[in-house]
Amino acid sequence: MKPHPDKDRMDALMPAIREFQALALRHGINDIFQDNGGKLLQVILTLGLTVLPGREGNDARDELGLEYELKSVNLDLTKNFSTHHHLNPVILAKYRQVDWVFALYRGIELIAVYRMKPWQLEPWFAKQESKWHSDGGRDINNPKIPVGYVLEHGQLLAGCDPEIRFRASKMVPVMPVLDPFRADND
What we know:
The chain is of the alpha+beta class and 186 residues long.
């Protein structure tokens, strides 16, 4: 076998790729080519977040100590965010505790970043929890969150509206009403 003619071009790009990887390592990302490492770096630097170590638990933390679940999607490939390969009530309970950050890409270009509060995702959480129970307690394999739902109900943090067409969701989040005069245990 002989090398492809583009190998010389790839070799010429390697110093910049190594520099990108070194930057990622400084931010706790071991491999820019695994688990969306390069995209994760882009999002955390854009939002000023810190990567949380390990593959279990939440993905990032802000300067106030608040933790976030991060998701990304390449709009050239799909219009849904992947979630968890074994979704169940334990994972849903964890998901209900933190804000979510959704990064929308076209290829490797970051187009927009949205944030959603747990209450905004509660209709989706409730739907998945109901499905889990109706399926006899079997974990759900990677249910998707539609990009359209995020665009409808999320807060744009960075970038611009990706201007994609989507069908309006039937899920409607209900903002909780807090009564400052009511005791916490009521």
